[in-house]
Design goal:
eight-stranded mixed beta sheet; single chain; about 55% helix; Rossmann fold; globular; binds nicotinamide 8-bromo-adenine dinucleotide phosphate; alpha/beta; two-stranded antiparallel sheet; about 10% strand
């Protein structure tokens, strides 16, 4: 019988760094990767004193593990994960614990969970965030599955996670695919925060003609205030980076097209299925899609007129308004993500505790931010909070900064600088805080052409009007 505490399959960037992280916490680790050369390169790059043992076929890998076996998959999500599970299942025994740490779609996790549990295995769907550095030094770990399965790996997982202001950023968040669903929403929020930061950069760069160093100074100042977060911090560092080829700031030499795939897209697809208004997350996905149309955009720039992209505000005034804008856009986006979790939790019976989700996101992950501390408190006070901005201190922040948010978005539109995430955040909150929307006309239009009926505001019941006969 084997003696290794855990086995990691998949030795690309995440698997390698997680294996090293786990070993650094005093555990012994078996590793295996489909392509042998990658395993050999990894083992040869490590000192021999490390408690890491490699296997070059899956049977030998399983034989290295102590019982109950604990296997962590860190491979490309989708077909690769299915192929590995198919190969592993005949080699595992009831009571063993199979964990998928990749970015699996929640419906795949539900299917795999059911198949594994039927065989008496414990299956945990684990969302891991933090990229390469997080994997090595301490990621945020969002787990879904059974309590009995989690309890057996909790000391190991909790030891390798980042430590936030309220403890280890690892928790069992709910049953089945709850962990992967939360990770998906984490990534949706990440998309929208990144897009809003890109818009702030564009407004400063083109709208105020600021240099990269000047913009870095601004992001640095914001990172010392309420906007303190990983994404604001790395934006400052990126803007300070010079091109080693001597052309100036490196960021200006990078092609302006972004891909979108996987979790960001899935968040928006799920929002549409649930009927939850995660508009700014979707706006960020569409912004990436539009950015990828580089040739079309270049041609359109010659054909479609617009104003000179210069903001009609003094620089100091504009930077104050931009801070307000980014702060409220961030809050709106987190609010949409938490609302989607609220709706998904009901729909999919996850029983999520959103203060616990906020706690897990406080360190290690890409969307970690100072604002998550009061967000966690707001959900602890009011677990069924419908929308984040309704709670304090966020309501007061909205009321204090909303006028500047409006001025900045209006100014951006006037200058022809696209701000899809910021603008959709403002539109969302303005829609949400409007008691009477023009959907009355919409209902009339539907009844006009499709006899879809409508309700009146002055009595109960369903109405239909023969609109062609009305004068
Ligand atoms: P990748 O997502 O690039 O996947 C590469 C790994 O998958 C390699 O080990 C590769 O083996 C293996 N693999 C593939 Br591809 N097809 C396979 C198959 N049919 N059978 C067995 N193994 C197969 O690696 P990653 O970036 O380290 O990410 C690992 C997981 O973690 C992914 O699900 C990813 O979405 C998730 N994740 C990544 C990050 C990040 O920052 N990169 C962050 C959070 C989560 P090979 O060497 O033989 O090709």
């Amino acid at each position: 019988m084997g003696s290794m505490d855990i086995g990691v399959i998949g030795l690309a960037v995440m698997g390698q760094n997680l294996a090293l992280n786990i070993e650094s916490r005093g555990y012994t680790v078996a590793v295996y990767n489909r392509t042998e050369a990658r395993t050999r390169a990894f083992i040869e790059s490590q000192s021999k004193s490390k408690a890491i043992e490699a296997a070059y076929d899956i049977e030998s890998f399983v034989a290295l593990l102590s019982r109950p076996r604990k296997v962590l998959l860190m491979v490309k999500s989708g077909a690769a994960t299915d192929a590995l599970i198919e190969a592993l299942l005949p080699l595992l025994e009831p009571g063993d614990i199979l964990m998928d740490g990749g970015n699996a779609h929640y419906s795949d996790t539900d299917r795999r969970y059911a198949a594994a549990e039927r065989l008496g295995l414990h299956y945990l769907g684990i969302g891991i965030s933090g990229g390469e550095t997080g994997a090595l030094l301490g990621p945020a770990i969002m787990v879904g599955g059974s309590l009995s399965g989690y309890e057996q790996v909790a000391p190991l997982l909790e030891s390798l996670a980042a430590v936030g202001p309220h403890g280890s950023c690892c928790a069992l968040l709910g049953p089945r695919s709850a962990g992967h669903y939360v990770k998906m929403i984490h990534n949706g929020i990440e998309y929208a925060l990144m897009q809003a930061l890109c818009e702030a950069y564009d407004l400063m760069h083109r709208g105020l003609e600021m240099s990269a160093d000047e913009m870095a100074d601004v992001f640095g100042r914001w990172n010392d205030a309420e906007l303190e977060s990983y994404l604001v911090a790395i934006t400052e560092k990126i803007l300070r980076q010079q091109d080693p080829e001597g052309t100036g700031p490196l960021v200006e030499m990078i092609l302006d097209t972004a891909a979108q795939k996987g979790t960001g897209k899935w968040s928006s697809q799920s929002a549409l299925d649930l009927g939850t208004p995660s508009a700014s997350i979707a706006a960020a996905v569409f912004a990436r899609i539009t950015s990828s149309l580089k040739a079309e955009r270049s041609a359109a720039e010659m054909l479609l007129a617009g104003p000179h992209p210069r903001l009609s505000m003094r620089r100091d005034e504009a930077l104050d308004a931009l801070f307000s804008t980014l702060l409220l856009a961030f809050l709106t986006v987190y609010g949409q993500g938490f609302r989607q979790l609220q709706d998904a939790s009901q729909d999919r019976a996850y029983a999520l505790d959103l203060s616990e989700v906020a706690r897990v996101w406080m360190a290690g992950c890409i969307i970690r931010a100072r604002l998550l501390v009061p967000m966690g408190k707001a959900f602890a006070r009011q677990p069924d909070l419908a929308y984040l901005l309704l709670a304090e201190p966020f309501q007061s922040l909205w009321n204090k900064h909303q006028a500047s948010f409006r001025s900045m978005v209006a100014c951006a539109h006037e200058a022809g600088i696209p701000v899809p995430a910021m603008s959709s955040a403002l539109n969302f909150v303005d829609t949400y805080r409007t008691a009477r929307l023009p959907a009355n006309l919409l209902q009339a239009q539907r009844d006009y052409f499709g006899a879809h009926t409508y309700q009146r505001i002055d009595r109960d019941g369903i109405e239909h009007t023969n609109w062609e006969q009305v004068r």
